[in-house]
Amino acid sequence: MRAMFLVLTLVCFLTNSGKGQQLGTSDLTFMFYNVENLFDVRDDSLTRDEAFLPDGDRYWTYGRFLQKLNHIYKVIAGVGEWQPPAVIGLAEVENRYVLEALLQETPLHRFGYEIIHQESPDARGIDVALLYRSELFEIQRQDFIQVDLPNRRKTRDIVYVQGVVGQTDTVHLYVNHWPSRYSGTKLSEPSRIVAAETLKSHIRGITSKEPDGKILVTGDFNDSPEDVSLQLLLEDSRLKNISSYKFDGTHKHQGEWSVLDQWLASNSWFGNNEGVYLEGGRAKVFSANWLLEEDVAHIGYKPRRTYVGFKYQGGFSDHLPIYLTIKHRPLLGNLNE
Questions:
Q1: How large is the C-alpha radius of gyration of the chain?
Q2: pLDDT over 80 at 103, yes or no
C-alpha cells in the first residue's frame, strides 16, 4: 500500500505541473535537504573530490550519479506530494553542473525550476544552493554571505535571497551549511559560533529596516537547537526555532538521533495579520519508510545512505529532509467577494 501511494504521488506530481498556481489557491512548500555528497564524475583540480571519481576510493560512476539524481527527485516529489515545492534549499552539492543535471535528467525539468548557486571556498568543493519556481517565488535580491573562520579555514557561504510570495509578501530566506563536527563537537564549536554571529549580523541589517519583516532560516547547522550557536542566533534576532519535530531527528550518529537540520522563523509569521503565515507554526521532517533502514548495530532505524564508509549501498542521504507549509490569509477587503 505504501508503494502504491508513492506511485500515485509521483504520477500526480508529474501530471500536475502547477502552471498558473498562485498562493491563495494552493499552499506552498519550502524544503531543505542535505543530499550528502552530490558529486559529478569529473576531477576538479581545485578541490578534494578524488574519492568521487570512477577510479576513486568510492568508484563513483556516471550510473551511480544518475541514480543519486533520481533518488533526490523521488524525495522532492515525496515532500511536495500533489504540488512540487516552491523553494528547495540544498546542501552538499559540488557545483552548478550537478544542479543542472538534477533539473534536466529527472522529471523536475517539467516545473521550470531556476538555480541560485555560487562556488564556495569549501575545501571539499561542496556548496549550498537554492532551487525555486519563479512563478511562485519572485526573486528580488540574492547574496552569498562569506563566513570568515579563524586560522584562514574555509567553509560554505550562506545563501541569502529576498523574494515575494503571494504577489505582496516579501520573504527573506537564508540557507546554511555550518562547519562540521569532524574534528570533534567541542573543538569545532567555535567555528559554528562564528557562522551564527555572521548570520545574526546580516539578519540585524534586515530587521533594522524591516522590524516586522518575514524571515526564514534553514539548513544543516551541525548543531542541535539547544547548542550554543543556535541559542546565540536566537538572542535579540526576532527568531523562533520551529524545529520541534515529532520524528526523532534528522541525522543519526552512533545510535543517537539529533536535530541538525532546522527551520527558524521570525515572529512576524505567527500574528493574525493579513498575508502569508506558517501552517501549524512548525516545520516537519519527511521520514518516509523508504528513506530509512534498520539500524542493526543499535536500535530502531537510521537514514539509508548512498555509502556506508566506502561500501556503496545505493541509498539516499545520511540526513532526512525538512519542510514547512506556507498558507495565505485572505485580505480583509476580499472577504465579501
A1: 19
A2: yes
